[in-house]
Write a structure and sequence with these properties.
globular, five-stranded mixed beta sheet, 20 strands, alpha+beta, six-stranded mixed beta sheet, binds zinc ion, single chain, 3 domains, 434 residues
Length: 434
């Protein structure tokens, strides 16, 4: 499948011409069901209307090697897509809202896309691009959402720590200029790279969307066709407020692991939550005591959070039950317990990630927590993380963190926590040390 996509300068409509090598699929539908009503027209290449049945464009009249065209209302498509928005005449969306495809299977042999845009408009996508501007849509571009921005600024390319990152900011009224935002991302890349000795992925699109106030608000990483991250950033942010925000460190830490299914949310959220506290301590942004205090507070909140059943079940149902606290913080307890166990063997969670990451770097397929633990355990002479994972995944109720914290010399006091000499205090210090 080959897509040629154009939009008008005011981003009202998106037009696509789609050509097929060989036979066309029976029909095309949007990646997001609710985006079906954004369809304005669908025709063959000669402009004859194609029938639309049950929210699908019927292609049964197309011959081999044929092309067709469709047009969607971008505002209706945007509203059908989660985490999409318009700001100062620019747009961020997921391709599922406007990239109509065969809903029964991903295109055999892959797909390509080319954008033809009005002067001064740029499409920023997470997809690999050839020198002639053609982008490749791998299977995951049809299986999962990704962030795509249509804006007035060309992305700024930042290459360091083995990643080629592209930074694009949308909207107007920013107090920080482009250099300051680029510096924020450079620092974040360097900080994340301290875990594995390099940034965990080769390519990354980072989209900054302005929000009221100061500091980093919501953030999210997606893996549809490539790696993309979105951050909501207060227009009045200072460089300090951005680097001090846990959101900076949490979101990018998700890239340390491959894609995992919802039932393993405890593992990917736990690892990101662990590093959101550990990395700022290592980088001197917060003290080790403050990091331990955040971890202990989190464990308390997790223990009192809703969401019953085994941890895998609580992970699967957390959006319905609101039991995020238990999932995130039980997963954080796993990351801490795993890190301590590895450090007692002369390794560390950083080391395990560094050794295993080449197995999944650039892999956009969905792994699972058992496979990740097998990869972590492979260089060890024993099965360490797999049994720990099995215990956590099946556990009903919050894990008992007090005994481990006590052995680490992390004690609660009136102001939060105090750090004391204990059996594992050397391990405790090494966790928060760069
Ligand atoms: Zn997260």
């Amino acid at each position: 499948m080959h897509y040629e996509v154009s939009v008008d300068a005011s981003l009202e409509h998106l037009r696509a011409r789609v050509c097929f090598d060989g036979a066309a699929p029976a029909s095309l539908g949007p990646g997001v069901d609710a985006a079906a009503r954004a369809l304005v027209e669908a025709t063959d290449d000669a402009g004859r209307a194609l029938p639309v049945r049950r929210d699908r464009i019927d292609l049964s009249s197309l011959g081999d090697g044929a092309c067709m065209r469709y047009r969607v209302d971008l505002e209706i498509a945007r509203r059908a897509s989660r985490f999409a928005g318009r700001v100062d005449g620019e747009l961020v969306s997921s391709q599922g809202a406007w990239l109509w495809r065969d809903r029964r299977r991903v295109p055999e042999g892959g797909a390509t896309i080319r954008f033809t845009l009005p002067d001064g408009l740029f499409a920023s996508t997470p997809w690999p691009v050839a020198p002639d501007g053609t982008q490749t849509l791998g299977p995951s571009a049809f299986q999962r959402p990704g962030f795509v921005a249509f804006g007035h600024r060309a992305p700024r390319v930042i290459e360091r720590q083995h990643v080629r990152a592209r930074l694009v900011r949308l909207g107007e009224g920013w107090q920080l200029d482009e250099d300051a935002l680029a510096h924020w991302l450079e620092e974040a890349i360097d900080g994340i790279a301290t875990v594995q000795g390099r940034f965990p992925v080769d390519d990354l699109l980072v989209i900054l969307v302005p929000a009221p106030g100061s500091g980093m608000g919501f953030g999210m990483v997606r893996r549809g066709g490539g790696f993309s991250a979105i951050y909501m950033v207060g227009r009045e942010s200072t460089p300090e407020s951005l680097r001090e925000s846990w959101v900076t460190w949490h979101e990018l830490s998700h890239l340390q692991l491959p894609a995992l299914p919802q039932r393993d949310a405890w593992m990917y959220e736990g690892l990101a939550t662990y590093y959101q506290e550990v990395l700022p301590a290592r980088l001197g942004i917060q003290t080790p005591t403050a990091a331990w205090s955040e971890l202990v507070d989190g464990f308390d909140r997790g223990a009192s959070s809703r969401g019953g059943g085994a941890l895998t079940e609580a992970s699967t149902t957390m959006f319905a039950t609101g039991g995020f606290g238990r999932v995130y913080w039980a997963g954080t307890a796993f990351a801490l317990e795993a890190d301590v166990a590895l450090r007692q063997r002369g390794s560390s969670l950083d080391d395990a990630l560094r050794r295993a990451a080449p197995r999944w770097r650039g892999d956009l397929e969905v792994w699972d927590s058992a496979r990740v633990c097998a990869a972590w355990d492979a260089p060890l002479d024993a099965s360490v993380l797999r049994p720990l994972r099995d215990r956590y995944a099946g556990q009903v109720g919050f894990p008992a963190t007090a005994p481990l914290l006590s052995r680490l010399g992390v004690r609660r006091d009136a102001d939060g926590v105090a750090l004391a000499s204990a059996e594992l205090s050397a391990v405790r210090e090494s966790i928060m040390r760069r």
